[in-house]
Each structure stands twice: as C-alpha cells, then as structure tokens.
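Exercise 7. Given the encoded structure of a 75-residue chain, write a plausible sequence.
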C-alpha cells in the first residue's frame, strides 16, 4: 500500500467540500419546491425526496429535511 500524499489529502478534502456544497444546494432547491407543495402532495413529495437522499447517502441532508418538514407540518 502506498502512503497518502498531500495531493491525495487535498483531493479528498476537495471531494468532501464538493459533496457538502451539492447537498446544501439540493436542500435549498427542494426547500423552495416543498414550500410550494400543499397537503397530500407535500407528504408524497417529501417521501420521494427522502428516498432519493437515503439512496444517495445524503444522511445530513435527510436530517435537515426532517427538521424542515417537521417544523412546517405542525401548523
């Protein structure tokens, strides 16, 4: 096994940052869409998005979405 170079560490950090930015953009986009959905459509939309995130391993996005959804369905 080869030792990890500084370049490899940089690439790993860069990849992690890209994933964070992408997941944040997804949350923002789906939040806008979720706010426009109403009633049953909102629930169906939420479950579909949650399934996408689960299969994509965006666990931090799921928790953010859960928090947003729960805070907006207690009305």
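Solution.
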């Amino acid at each position: 096994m080869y030792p990890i170079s500084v370049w490899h560490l940089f690439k790993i950090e860069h990849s992690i940052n890209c994933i964070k930015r992408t997941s944040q953009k997804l949350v923002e986009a789906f939040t806008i869409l979720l706010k426009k959905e109403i009633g049953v459509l909102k629930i169906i939309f939420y479950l579909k998005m949650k399934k996408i995130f689960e299969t994509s391993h965006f666990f931090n996005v799921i928790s953010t979405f859960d928090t947003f959804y729960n805070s907006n369905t207690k009305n």
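Remark. The chain has a mean pLDDT of 68. Students should compare their own answers with the one above.
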